[in-house]
From TrEMBL:
Gene3D superfamilies noted in UniProt: FAD/NAD(P)-binding domain (3.50.50.60), HI0933 insert domain-like (1.10.8.260), Translation factors (2.40.30.10)
Domain RsdA/BaiN/AoA(So)-like insert intervals: 257-316
UniProt name for this protein: FAD/NAD(P)-binding oxidoreductase family protein
Record keywords: FAD, Flavoprotein
A Pfam family reported for this protein in Swiss-Prot or TrEMBL: HI0933_like
């Protein structure tokens, strides 16, 4: 089967047109967007070089990694990544610009799964066995990126620059023949009579619309609403998206006096630090609307022990230097002090964004896909990977690991299906 032009309907502002085809970096077409116009000839480039087409929605970590893998497994497959902005833009800003690629302290899949507030049960299966943190680290080092594991398990490029990861992925995409088009949004997806995906792609800057027909569709659109809408159009449901990994804004002057660094970081505007981020992740859904936070400042000591320690100290103090104020505090008030230490309440007035990492909980429910293949249980040849799924992790590289694992598994299985299809065609 060849890509016949009729497989695509190209529609630009009301009429069919052809124009220039963008720059071709050895099979890797890059369309800078602002200066060059997307054209019919760029689409036909994909058509003439391959038999079947995979369209990947989203050039983020999951999309690019998945696209490369699909192309490696099935070199004859046309692989086209559509990215509405710049590719790998979150990789760029991730980890404070250093990119925390994965976590090197969690090789065991059961331990690994515990770091995912959404997905912790489902990810205990084959997901990380197929492509886990060690595989990710091997992949990047095999492709020329030296990595280091910090004491807390976070893995970064030795360069301490996310550009190392971006350059590596872009080079591999180019080398394997993945096509990337930027500045375009996939705005709708329907199923044709022949079971293929008819995608509407818009380039808003020049008010153009085009239609592409794809044999395989990988939705790797992160937390974008457009991505969720595509999933719904193709028969999926969406678990309401809510932010995860945030800090708590608290307007409490007494709290500001406690400013300091520790697992719970107290600042003049509220609370942050590892403990708070972990809490925000596990409680993302409950904490969606502002509420009251109860802090146990001494979690290792039982309330009854706290009471007796305070009362004992009062008795001690009473004997020293006539500390009348302390000594005269009634027992009930001391018990209140103990309760306050164990259960201090703060009104949370809002969420602050943690600049190093941020993720969305919610998305396509895991019950609607197979985590062994990342294929939809609703629509054959439809795949998902990354944050678009109802998977999110705590800080430490777990969110990128979800993107690498999902992208790799999806790419592998799309590639295998494409190989099977081409063998069947040859047999006919
Ligand atoms: C500031 C920040 C720092 C972070 N740091 C880390 C870190 O150090 N380690 C870690 O593990 N995680 C980190 N994360 C989380 C991590 O970036 C995400 O979990 C990860 O990027 C998800 O990858 P993805 O490919 O699923 O989605 P994304 O990276 O969001 O990529 C999706 C892409 O799809 C595009 N897109 C969406 N809809 C459409 C459409 N309809 N048509 C065309 N294109 C579309 C988007 O423009 C986007 O480029 C960080 C997040 C933030 C915000």
């Amino acid at each position: 089967m060849n890509f016949a032009l009729s497989r695509f309907v190209l529609h630009f502002g009301g009429s069919l047109k052809t124009a220039n085809s963008g720059r071709n970096y050895g099979g890797f077409l890059f369309f800078p967007g602002k200066t060059r116009r997307f054209t019919a000839s760029s689409i036909s480039k994909v058509q003439t070089t391959s038999e079947e087409l995979l369209v990947v929605v989203g050039g983020g970590a999951a999309g690019v990694y998945g696209a490369i893998r699909a192309k490696i497994v099935a070199p004859h497959l046309g692989v086209l990544v559509i990215e509405k902005a710049k590719p790998l833009s979150k990789v760029k800003i991730s980890g404070g610009g250093r990119c925390n690629v994965t976590n090197g302290h969690s090789a065991d899949k059961m331990v690994l799964a515990e770091h995912y507030p959404r997905g912790n049960k489902e990810l205990r299966g084959s997901f990380f066995s197929i492509h886990g943190p060690v595989d990710t680290m091997t992949w990047f080092s095999d492709h020329g990126v030296d990595l280091k594991t910090e004491d807390d398990g976070r893995v970064f490029p030795v360069s301490d620059s996310s550009s190392s990861i971006i350059d590596c992925l872009m080079l591999e995409a180019k080398r394997s023949g993945v096509l990337l088009q930027t500045g375009k949004v996939v705005t709708s997806a329907t199923i044709t009579d022949s079971g293929k995906f008819l995608l509407k792609i818009e380039k808003r800057t020049i008010d153009s619309v085009e239609y592409v027909e794809a044999d395989y569709l990988l939705i790797a659109s992160g937390s974008s609403r457009q991505g969720y809408a595509l999933a719904v159009q193709l028969g999926h449901s969406i678990v309401d998206p809510v932010p995860s990994l945030f800090t708590f804004k608290i307007a409490d002057t007494q709290l500001a006096e406690l400013s300091g660094v520790g697992p719970m970081l107290v600042t003049h505007w509220g609370l942050s630090g590892p403990v708070i981020l972990r809490l925000s992740a596990w409680g993302a859904r409950d904490l969606f609307s502002s509420g009251t936070l109860f802090v146990d400042f001494i979690p290792d000591i039982h309330i009854e022990d706290v009471k007796s320690i305070i009362i004992r100290h009062k008795n001690q103090c009473a004997g020293i230097g006539g500390d009348i104020l302390w000594a005269s505090i009634p027992k009930n008030s001391l018990i209140s002090v103990a309760s306050l230490l164990k259960q201090c309440s703060f009104g949370v007035t809002g969420k602050g964004q943690f600049k190093d990492e941020f993720v969305t909980a919610g998305g396509v429910p895991l019950s609607e896909i197979s985590l062994k293949t990342m294929e939809s249980r609703v629509q054959p040849h439809l795949f998902f990977a990354g944050e678009v799924l109802n998977i999110d992790g705590v800080t430490g590289g777990f969110n990128f690991q979800n993107a690498w694992s999902g992208g790799y598994i999806a790419g592998t299985n799309i590639g295998k299906l494409a190989l099977d299809d081409s063998l069947k065609e040859e047999a006919v």
